[in-house]
Amino acid sequence: MPGLIDFAGRWVLERRIDDRLAGAVGRFEGVAELTPDGAGLAYVERGLLTLGTGAPMAAERRYVWAAGEAGRIAVAFADGRAFHSFDPGAGTAEATHWCDPDDYRVSYDFSGWPLWRAVWQVRGPRKDYRMESVYRR
Known about the structure:
Blueprint: E1 9-19, E2 24-37, E3 40-51, E4 57-67, E5 73-77, E6 82-86, E7 92-99, E8 102-109, E9 116-124, E10 127-136
Antiparallel strand pairs: 1-2, 1-10, 2-3, 3-4, 4-5, 5-6, 7-8, 8-9, 9-10
């Protein structure tokens, strides 16, 4: 199973967003690049996001991935705030993030490595969506 450095490089990224509150489906198509940066990897994804029947728009996200304890990967927001951590060595991994008042839960699947998935379930007073991202070399 992969370790932190195995994620370095360019990934084709496809994402489906099922917004249960809006009754709409969104799509993201682009790339994610993980580049060595200090003690970890700088994660940058760029692409086109289409929400429902709207026009596609440019979208970008940034995170910092670093080696954590016992082989875990610690993910932080670009500004350094902690987001979550996961263990890629088990084939599957789960993590949570509480962003008051919203609950974020992710399930990672590395069993088809180097293809991998991240499925987020997000719930809160104004949020209820499932977001599945598939990464391929």
